[in-house]
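Repro case for the chain-ordering regression, as requested:
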Amino acid sequence: MFELTMAKGSILQGVLEAILDLVNVANVDCSSKGFSLQALDTEHVVFLSLFFPSEVFRSYRCDEDCSMGIAIADMVDLLRASNDGDIITIKVTDQNFEDITITFESPDKTKTTDMDLQLVDARSHRLKISEWHDMESEYQAIFCMPSAQFMLNCKSLSVIDDDVVIRVNEEVISFSTKGKSGCVNISHVPNKTDNPEKASVTLTHMRGPVSLTLNLRYMKSCAKVSTLFDQVKIGLSTKLPLMVECKIAEKGYIRYFVAPKITE
Amino acid sequence: FQVQTEILKFFAVQ
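-- result from build under test --
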């Protein structure tokens, strides 16, 4: 059996709302340590991988590892029907592995709402990626910045064009774009430390200058989820997709992998 | 000119 309980408005609900503009269906793997979710956007430009450790929930129980496909958009619609103060329980029993039961319980325990949501096939949303620890060392540059600043950069640039060029070297991290009506260039002088301060832009890992072109539509989606957190970590490599990461508690994370544009 | 790559170029389906 799998069962988790959370309060309305919890971080899970916030994240599910924030990923909706990219993701309809997701593959969810549950274990005793927590649950992970993987999803591809419909245009196959972004892969989303997140892990919610069990300790971020009010209660969490998973007797046996299990994997299921969830129509995230439908689930979010159901979760929106909860009232302030409700305790939300999400449950799948071994006897019935065809649907997921969502229950809202009012704070005074006088009203309970049960809903069943059918599970779907989401196996195509699982991608084979190497262990994160190995992968992170493959990035040429990794920097952290306040997520509000990241969102502001994406918004400012999207006024001019659909694309952003992110360039990183030892001296500067820049976000720039050029369109018919003009150009924008936002430059940040990074700190260089392993312990990024919350309010500053910090270059944490640098193996050489790198630049990537990305579609701002997808970047704005990454920025949207990142605003639920203080800081966002961004990794660039010419051989890997751009990585945008936010940490959830000690061990949890949300990682977006965004395919760049290339010159043909 | 620049073209959008697919994420599957980097990661295979499991």
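Ordering looks correct now. Chain A has a mean pLDDT of 92.
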